[in-house]
């Protein structure tokens, strides 16, 4: 009796709680990675009633007795649809901002609650590789090697990783990432002076990857040849500049020397003491001498009045002409000679 009564009680509990227990079947959250611009369709159907919620914005679409309603002020308005034939909900034109957690619930018939975590990524851009200005020289015993440094860069994004690979090797030589999504990722590579290898710079995220391949035999050797050419050209320019400056200085020195020599020739030897440039002073002294001579002549005439007259004197000698002299000293010398000749002639005459 007691066992039969207990059995009936359990049957009643199952009868009333059965429908509610079937609704409580909630599965584990599913993580799905998607690319921006794509569409995503939730796999479970909502028939005839249910809804889809987005964390932070609430309900974005409801289905009631096979009629959908998307008139909600959310960022998904105009991009979320319910397919009446399949009962599935689709979100189109996904963006990175659509990443988050969604809850899909069926409220009638086949009841369930499903949770999805969507992660939307932009495609990575193609990495750019250039020669770095950092170059190092290495000595190994008697050999000499010059490293060629390459620099790879790419615009950062969500979960973007930048890596260097050597040809046919699966393990990366180096890699980098950054939480700053607005930055540019950069990753250098030293070739250790080996110019016969091929390297690949790979930018990747969970939904895409881009690769740039570099042949160091072309990239680094061309850079070395260019650097050597630039070095030779710079050396040529330096030598030309030094020669030009030396030539200019030599010309300036020669001009200064000639100018100084010419100035010395114009100045002539130093002037003789007692001789001045004032020609009037010389004439004053000569006039004085002439006056004394006249006095002696008067005295002599008084003494020789009885003496017969002497024969007429010879005609006066013309003073030598002044010779052209370009210097002041020459002109002074010619003037003194002329005055002396004139004085001698006057003394002889009288």
What helical percentage do the residues reach?
25-40%
Total beta strand runs: 18
Count of DSSP H/I helices: 4
Sum up the overall morphology in one term.
elongated
> In angstroms, what separates the terminal alpha carbons?
197 Å
Question: Unreliable segments (pLDDT under 50, ≥5 consecutive)?
Answer: 18-24, 138-144, 224-232, 274-291
How is this fold's topology laid out?
Elements lengths: L1 H22 L6 E6 L4 E2 L8 E5 L3 E6 L4 E2 L10 E3 L6 E3 L8 E7 L5 E10 L6 E4 L5 E4 L2 E4 L2 E7 L5 E6 L7 E3 L7 E7 L7 E8 L2 E8 H52 L11 H25 L24 H22 L1
Parallel strand pairs: 1-9
Antiparallel strand pairs: 2-7, 3-4, 3-8, 4-5, 6-7, 8-9, 10-13, 11-12, 13-16, 14-15, 14-17, 17-18
């Amino acid at each position: 009796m007691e066992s039969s009564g207990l059995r009936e009680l359990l049957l009643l509990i199952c009868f009333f709680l059965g429908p509610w227990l079937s609704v409580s079947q909630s599965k584990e959250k599913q993580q799905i990675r998607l690319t921006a611009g794509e569409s995503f369709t939730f796999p479970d159907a909502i028939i005839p009633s249910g809804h889809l919620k987005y964390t932070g914005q609430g309900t974005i679409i409801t289905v009631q007795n096979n009629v959908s309603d998307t008139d909600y002020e959310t960022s998904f308005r105009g991009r979320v649809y319910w397919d009446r034939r399949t009962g599935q909900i689709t979100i189109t034109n996904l963006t990175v901002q659509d990443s988050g957690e969604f809850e899909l619930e069926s409220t009638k018939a086949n009841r369930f609650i499903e949770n999805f975590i969507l992660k939307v990524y932009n495609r990575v851009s193609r990495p750019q590789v250039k020669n770095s200005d950092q170059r190092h020289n290495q000595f190994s015993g008697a050999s000499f090697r010059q490293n060629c440094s390459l620099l790879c860069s790419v615009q950062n994004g969500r979960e973007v990783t930048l890596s260097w690979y050597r040809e046919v090797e699966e393990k990366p030589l180096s890699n980098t990432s950054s939480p700053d999504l607005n930055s540019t990722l950069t990753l250098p590579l030293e070739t250790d002076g080996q110019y016969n290898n091929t390297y690949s710079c790979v930018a990747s995220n969970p939904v895409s990857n881009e690769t740039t391949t570099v042949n160091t035999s072309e990239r680094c050797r061309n850079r070395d040849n260019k650097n050597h050419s630039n070095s030779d050209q710079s050396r040529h320019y330096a030598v030309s500049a030094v020669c030009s400056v030396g030539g200019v200085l030599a010309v300036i020195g020669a001009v200064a020397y000639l100018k100084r020599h010419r100035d010395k020739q114009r100045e002539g030897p130093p002037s003789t003491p007692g001789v001045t440039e004032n020609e009037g002073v010389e004439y004053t002294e000569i006039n004085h001498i002439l006056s004394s001579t006249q006095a002696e002549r008067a005295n002599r005439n008084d003494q020789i009045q009885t003496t017969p007259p002497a024969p007429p004197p010879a005609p006066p000698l013309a003073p030598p002409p002044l010779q052209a002299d370009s210097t002041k000293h020459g002109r002074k010398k010619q003037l003194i000679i002329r005055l002396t000749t004139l004085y001698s002639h006057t003394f002889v005459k009288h």
